[in-house]
Amino acid sequence: MCSSSFQMMGPVWLWLWLLVAEVLLPVHCQPFSAHGDKSLGASQPASHQSLEPAPAYHKVTPTITNFALRLYKQLAEEVAGNILFSPVSLSSSLALLSLGAHADTQTQILESLGFNLTETPAADVHRGFQSLLHTLDLPSPKLELKLGHFLFLDRQLKPQQRFLDSAKELYGALAFSANFTEAAATGQQINDLVRKQTYGQVVGCLPEFSHDTLMVLLNYIFFKAKCKHPFDRYQT
Ligand SMILES: *[C@@H]1O[C@H](CO)[C@@H](O)[C@H](O)[C@H]1NC(C)=O
Ligand SMILES: *[C@@H]1O[C@H](CO)[C@@H](O)[C@H](O)[C@H]1NC(C)=O
């Protein structure tokens, strides 16, 4: 099993990411309160608005931020130079994998990400990731952010339909079957599919795997922010 992630952005990525998570998310909540406003004055009780549940991602973002900081600290001690990683990609990939694992393995994976399953049961963690990924996927005029998961499963695997359904529903993960005995052809197949699914934004993805690979989980992320002060084309 292997997992790879594609990151196409500068070294300030981690901090940008945290910033995006903190700044962007509240903006996207607004349609919900707008909806609440509309029902004011109707037969709804006045307390309706204040009882509105917080979005499900609120249950996962603090843990993801802590995970990012822990990981960053560890990487900074071991790696020289710039560090490029995407905490949401990594944590959501692991949480997605845990869906297909036995209950105790699922617990271990989620706890290693820092979740306290007494406080936040596994189902809430998955719903939280679903809400976070959905929110990050909403179009924004300021930045373009695309994040996705692909699962490539060897033909000899018989994954449970329930796992495939949950992976798709909660993580938007698309599953494809592949024949890993034919390594080169499968690499090409994965490359073509990723290019097609990302409308050409992610290219040259030719993962390497060994003959006994049975599953590849691939995560891509594409991030493009508009500059606040765009460079003057004639001066650059
Ligand atoms: C998890 O949360 C429960 C309830 O808040 C708490 O009693 C427990 O100590 C926490 N576990 C860990 C490992 O932090
Ligand atoms: C996978 O590819 C190998 C080598 O070409 C072939 O022998 C095998 O039958 C294929 N397996 C499946 C399940 O298609």
Automatic annotation (TrEMBL):
GO molecular function ontology, one term from the record: serine-type endopeptidase inhibitor activity
Keyword Zinc: no
Swiss-Prot/TrEMBL keywords: Signal
Database matches in SUPFAM superfamilies: Serpins
GO cellular component terms listed in the entry, alphabetical order: extracellular space
Coiled coil: none
Family matches, as Pfam families: Serpin (PF00079)
PANTHER family documented for this protein: SERINE PROTEASE INHIBITOR, SERPIN, SERPIN A11
This protein's name: Serine (or cysteine) peptidase inhibitor, clade A (alpha-1 antiproteinase, antitrypsin), member 11
Organism this protein belongs to: Mus musculus (Mouse)
